[in-house]
TrEMBL record:
Coiled coil: none annotated. InterPro entries: GHMP_kinase_C_dom, GHMP_kinase_N_dom, Ribosomal_Su5_D2-typ_SF, Ribsml_uS5_D2-typ_fold_subgr. One of its GO terms (molecular function) is ATP binding. Residues 188-256 form the GHMP kinase C-terminal domain. It holds the Pfam family GHMP_kinases_C. Residues 54-118 form the GHMP kinase N-terminal domain. This is GHMP kinase.
């Protein structure tokens, strides 16, 4: 879910993500006396994160190497809205910090990630539900309880990599900001009442709102699959091509309906992604 939300006297872009613990980035930092941070192709943001972390170590008077080598391994597809770059960056900050005995709060990790990426996901907070201003590294809302459990039946739509920063920079109209407020109220209800339908409606409204920014031609078909299989809504990557049908995991017959949704998505020729229960205690 993504939109524009109040932060003090202004509105800023913010999002709620769907962290997927099985999909991870692993980073090894090998310190070196040779100045500079070296990394493989496609890991420029992780390299910047390492440089920023080493600089912070210097500012705090901690012993640190002159440079080092990053080894990044990721199971997360890139460019499709699954947070691959933020996962690389967060893992890098933690790896370099561990090497230098640098202790960081989750907020400090998020700020370093923002400086490395310009906009980043709230992966430093793990699976805790937060409304996060991705361009300011600030938590606007922290929910004390988990979202109700939903079964995610995911797919990937056709299309190439998406430039996240270009999408994040687009402004929201007053009408769209009012819709974002309604979405936030639905999230409050879903946590307070443990209401999976409210979560599904919030995700669906956000997906529809996103159609003016990154249109997904298959969205009507995804909504039809959700209706026909008893889903509570759909979730989309607002800066990517991955989507999922959401089903209330606590409702009797949820596993059977998830299989029906998977069959329906397969019949549309959509590439499979996740198939798992997310949320809950």
């Amino acid at each position: 879910m993504q939109g524009s939300f109040a932060w003090g006297t202004r509105s800023v872009p913010a999002l709620v993500t769907v962290p997927l613990p099985p999909l991870q980035s692993r980073v090894e930092f090998v310190p070196s006396s040779r100045p500079g941070v070296r990394a493989g192709h496609g890991t420029e943001k992780a390299r910047r994160a390492a440089q920023l972390t080493l600089r912070l170590c210097r500012e705090r008077g901690l012993p640190r190497p002159a440079g080092g080598q990053l080894r990044v391994e990721s199971a997360i597809p890139s460019g499709c809205g699954m947070g691959s770059s933020t996962a690389d960056v967060i893992a890098t900050i933690r790896a370099v910090g561990h090497c230098c005995s640098l202790r960081l709060t989750r907020g400090e990790v998020s700020e370093l990630a923002r400086r490395a990426e310009t906009a980043s996901d709230p992966l430093a907070f793990g699976c805790e539900p937060v409304l996060f201003a991705q361009r300011h590294a600030r938590v606007l809302r922290h929910w004390p309880r988990a979202f109700p459990p939903v079964h995610l039946v995911g797919c990937r739509l056709p299309g190439g990599p998406v430039e996240t920063l270009a999408l994040d920079a687009q402004g929201y109209t007053p009408h769209e900001r009012r819709e974002c407020l309604r979405i936030l109220h639905l999230l409050e209800r879903c946590v307070g009442d443990g209401d999976a339908r409210a979560l599904g409606e919030a995700a669906t409204r956000s997906a529809l709102l996103n159609q003016t920014r990154l249109p997904k031609p298959a969205l009507p078909e995804l909504l039809a699959v959700s209706r026909e299989t008893g889903g509570v809504g759909v979730q989309v990557a607002h800066s990517g091509t991955v989507c999922a049908v959401l089903l209330d995991a606590r409702r009797p017959g949820a596993a059977h309906r998830a299989r029906e949704a998977r069959t329906a998505l397969d019949s549309l020729g959509l590439e499979r992604t996740v198939d798992m229960i997310w949320g809950g205690p």
